[in-house]
């Protein structure tokens, strides 16, 4: 990593030909990024895919203009120079990271890509003294500003109010199905199902360390089980619930956290202090589950609270009764 940065050239040391070559490679990369984004959302968000296709086409047109300018000034041989070869040059976020964060994040990244490129060329133009180089950088900044204008025109063409509203609804639906629903199921399972073994152990032994170990084992074991079960139960192709890996992680992690919430207090040596804190955390967990059901699943709050609190109370009482037997 250090050798990469030490070998990178400074932007101010580049010749005009190298600056032009760098702009050409950057336009090529951005066109590929837009095409990849478009392909990833085409099935679910066709209007946004059309917008991204148009952006990719614009990048290719600007790339061709830059190549023509290079041929006119420097000939046909374009130096091989890319973003990573230049210290301080703006970088793009990994495609896999952005496309997995939803259509809204992709739209924001597209706007950021154009804005970042324009600002960079403007700042770079202020750092050079050669008149020709400064003019070239100014021209590149104007080209990027033209991209922003074209992006607005394409959005008006492909993403009218109805299309945008429909895509936002679909994005929210996929978020709920992929993350919220399995995460909520995991949190409910982790919070409720671990109550009995943890509190049974607590009241049977009144040993906080033993109780913590049982709670830790129950929480992690339940998390692994729920995660694999969720991932294996549905590949998401027919149901539209999204990636089974994402759902498995959401369910497994939230299951573990749900159990650890009332297991961690038993790291406190005093049994009754630890138990009272665990009681309070259980209360918070159950009401949090009811709130999530109300916010994301449209379940009436009092009905959700009654179901969750009643079920949790029954399991909680079961653990205490068995522990005192």
Present the secondary structure layout.
Elements: H1 2-7, E1 9-10, H2 16-41, H3 46-74, E2 86-87, H4 95-99, H5 103-127, H6 131-158, H7 161-193, H8 195-205, H9 208-233, H10 244-261, H11 271-297, H12 301-324
Helix pairs in contact: 2-3, 2-5, 2-6, 3-6, 5-6, 7-9, 7-10, 7-11, 7-12, 8-9, 8-12, 9-10, 11-12
Tally of distinct domains: 2
Give the % helix.
Answer: over 70%
Order of helices and strands: HEHHEHHHHHHHHH
Integer average pLDDT: 80
- What is the overall shape? elongated
Q: Rg, please?
A: 28 Å
Which strand order spans the largest sheet, edge to edge or round the barrel?
1-2
DSSP summary, beta strand count: 2
Short description:
This protein has 325 residues and is mainly α.
What does this molecule look like?
- This protein is mainly α.
- The protein has 2 domains: 2-159, Ferritin, core subunit, four-helix bundle (Ferritin, Up-down Bundle), CATH 1.20.1260.10; 166-324, no CATH class.
- Helices cover 79% and strands 1% of the residues.
- A two-stranded parallel ribbon has the order 1-2.
- Helix 7 runs antiparallel to helix 9 (208-233) and helix 9 runs antiparallel to helix 10.
- The protein is elongated and about 90 Å long.
- Residues 1-5 have low confidence and may be disordered.
């Amino acid at each position: 990593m250090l050798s990469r940065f030490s070998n990178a050239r400074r932007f101010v040391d580049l010749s005009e030909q190298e600056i032009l070559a760098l702009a050409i490679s950057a336009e090529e990369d951005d066109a590929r990024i837009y095409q990849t984004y478009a392909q990833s959302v085409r099935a679910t968000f066709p209007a946004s895919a059309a917008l991204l296709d148009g952006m990719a086409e614009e990048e290719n047109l600007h790339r061709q203009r830059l190549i023509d300018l290079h041929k006119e000034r420097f000939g046909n041989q374009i130096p091989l120079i890319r973003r990573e070869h230049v210290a301080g040059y703006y970088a793009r976020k990994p495609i896999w990271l952005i496309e997995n964060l939803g259509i809204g994040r992709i739209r924001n990244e597209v706007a950021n890509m154009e804005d970042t490129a324009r600002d960079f060329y403007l700042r770079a133009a202020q750092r050079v003294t050669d008149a020709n180089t400064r003019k070239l950088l100014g021209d590149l900044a104007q080209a990027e500003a033209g991209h922003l204008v074209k992006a607005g025109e394409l959005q008006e063409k492909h993403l009218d109010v109805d299309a945008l509203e429909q895509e936002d609804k679909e994005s929210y639906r996929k978020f709920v199905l992929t993350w919220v629903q399995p995460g909520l199921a995991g949190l409910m399972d982790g919070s409720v199902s671990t109550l009995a073994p943890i509190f049974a152990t607590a009241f049977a032994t009144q040993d906080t360390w033993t109780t913590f170990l049982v709670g830790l084992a129950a929480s992690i074991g339940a998390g692994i089980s729920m995660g694999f079960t969720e991932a294996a139960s549905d590949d998401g192709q027919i149901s539209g619930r999204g990636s089974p890996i994402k759902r498995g992680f959401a369910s497994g992690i939230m299951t573990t956290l749900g159990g650890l919430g009332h297991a961690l207090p038993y790291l406190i040596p005093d049994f009754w202090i630890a138990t009272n804190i665990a009681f309070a955390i259980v209360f918070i967990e159950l009401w949090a589950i009811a709130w999530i059901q109300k916010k994301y699943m449209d379940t009436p709050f009092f009905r959700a609270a009654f179901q969750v609190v009643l079920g949790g109370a029954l399991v909680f009482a079961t653990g205490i009764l068995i522990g005192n037997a």
